[in-house]
Batch of 2 targets.
Target 1
Amino acid sequence: MSSVTADLLAKYDRPGPRYTSYPTAVEFHEGFTPERYLEKLDQAAANPSEPLSVYVHLPFCRERCSFCGCNVIITQKPGVAAAYLEDLEREIAMVADRLKSRTRLVQYHWGGGTPTFLSLEEIERVFKAFADRFTFEPGAEIAIEVDPRVTTHRQAELLRRLGFNRISMGVQDFDTDVQEAVNRYQTFEQTKDLHEHLRGLGVESINFDFIYGLPHQTPESFRKTIQLALELRPDRVAVYSYAFVPWIKAHQKAIHLEDLPAREVKLQLFGIAHELFTADGYQQIGMDHFALAEDSLARAAREHTLHRNFMGYTTHPARDSVGFGVSAIGDLGGAFAQNTKKLNRYKDALDRGRTPIERGFERSKDDEIRRDVIQSLMCNFYLDVRAIERAHGIDFASYFADSLRELDEGPKIHGFLARTPEAIEVTPPGRLFVRNICMAFDGYLKRHEGETKVFSRTV
Ligand SMILES: C[S@@+](CC[C@H](N)C(=O)[O-])C[C@H]1O[C@@H](n2cnc3c(N)ncnc32)[C@H](O)[C@@H]1O
Ligand code: SF4
């Protein structure tokens, strides 16, 4: 990673999508209506034996971390969550009625916000609302995001009893100067205590989230943070590049540009995480994750069979996913569908007996082809060209002539990828720039040229 010069870094550090979906959410529009979503649900009901993924958004947090880019509602008022759960139950009933006997789940994910903002009774209530209408396939991934600062032992025990087998903990950074700069005070002991408790309960897979590029991070401080993480040895870690998007998330203005590490330092921070994790039994997964080599994600990455959806990396994706709760995104019958982000609109829609879908996107054949290419490169740093040709009936070289020229004139010269007529492979130094490589296959970016305030920067 150190072989990348400052000039090259400056050239590649430009605004670009993170490709949690293709096309990205920026393309979603209101022409995709609640009525169209109901049609999609009805079509989905016609394949009752096909498994589904379900995402549930639980948006509440007690306080805001100033770096946060998630869809969050900050509140300490009692009763706000209970009112939301009533609405959520109405949405579950409405959608499950349409899905009829399409009930088998292979992936079930509670994200936020902070799902453990909810009380024990509220957690049980949400779980029951789904368990009454859906069933879990053997080996289903049942996952939740938790904040160690607010998650109690009793909540952990309840989650285990309900069947959650993947728990992801937000950590971000253990350094107190960094924590102060981002308004997130979390001691190493809080993280260690919850981690040990979850281990003792026999939770199958534990993940820690870190962010690099936060204010006041230095190579020395971040090295210590990663060393502390290694003492605990979670199964998986995410090391996210800080997405600084104050034009979208106004509260990020509390973070001063001059306190952020320079791009060379930012790259160094990721290099440190990469060096320490890979030296200690972890394997890099996609752009920003690491997993112990024996973990199923690591195995899938070695076999080039990793997938990714809005819930993260997965080994067993369902073709269709359904999102519940404010801002949740589903992917059903070749279309993305997103609920409104506003609590009052969410409630209003349900009061009127409508689904709270606000926007979405129906993918064309061209979108599907590009999506497969981008997904494979993002997950596996590898593209089987012949597999794309077979799956979509295209001649890759002519279909993507412009994209290939762009890659040959840039990333290939700089040693970021190698290609033959059969395959494209992202090289180890190119991995940090995989977003840039994928941008060559993006059919929508040209429209956003000149608009600087759409995406976060790629480095
Ligand atoms: C919903 S939170 C995790 C659960 C819980 N709310 C917490 O923070 O502990 C999801 C994760 O997104 C990541 N994240 C949030 N804002 C980000 C940003 N602006 N850039 C990069 N990663 C971010 C953090 O690592 C965070 O742990
Ligand atoms: S990072 Fe987590 S705890 Fe902090 S505001 Fe965002 S969702 Fe809430």
Target 2
Amino acid sequence: MKAANKPKVTLIGAGPGDPDLITVKGSKALANADVVLYDALINRSLLAYAPNAIKIFVGKRKDFHRYSQDEINQLMVENAFEFGNVVRLKGGDPYIFGRGAEEVEYIESFNIEAEVISGISSSMAVPASQGISLTKRGISESFWVITGTTSERKLSKDVYLAAQSTATVVILMGMSKLQEIVAIFKQFEKGNLPVAIIQNGTTTNEKLGLGTIDSIVDVVKRNELSSPAIIVIGEVVKESAKLRSFYEELNIEKI
Ligand SMILES: C[S@@+](CC[C@H](N)C(=O)[O-])C[C@H]1O[C@@H](n2cnc3c(N)ncnc32)[C@H](O)[C@@H]1O
């Protein structure tokens, strides 16, 4: 079948989970989609923006066939040649631990136009939803966003560097490495540093765990927190108007 539209793939960042946190540009581009390939972490209600499109779930979920990255790449290209406008709807922002760059390279290697529409990354929006300002005058001059699971399934070595700084540290995909992360911060005598863990942030299933480097592993066990979650480490956590009272009761000293 000949494509009605010129082949094109648009990577759209769907935002962190709250469907209202997609961009206007993203929702407009969805309306023109002939095919939507969507991930597990996107809010399904966003698919309503693409009423006439074929929708294909390509995320990782129990009981579903798990598409490899090669299969997803192939699906994007095949559907673009067959149907025209393909949207690849991805959680957060496509370029923040989203394999967006690899997908764009693959698409362009077939001389297909690729466009990326940025999304609001969970790394910023989820802390913000708990009143955590990643930078704050006099408290934190920078923030690091680090992966807890590199392509070799290891904790990023950057955590060692970040733990020695005064930066706010945001770790994605880090729940299975929490003990390792905590051990690194302890090496630098940061046991009192505040930590917030937010699971399914900005959604109706949101769960929160608060503590310090010394206590957070127990907090996670007690509250049964798991992935997908954001780990936020830094003094800014206790500056949040929403979370401040928790830390005032702990009465911990600044490091
Ligand atoms: C493969 S990364 C993709 C990140 C995405 N590109 C972004 O910018 O948000 C998936 C990880 O992001 C984090 N994440 C995404 N959405 C989240 C949410 N609503 N609440 C908490 N963590 C989330 C979790 O650490 C999850 O394991």
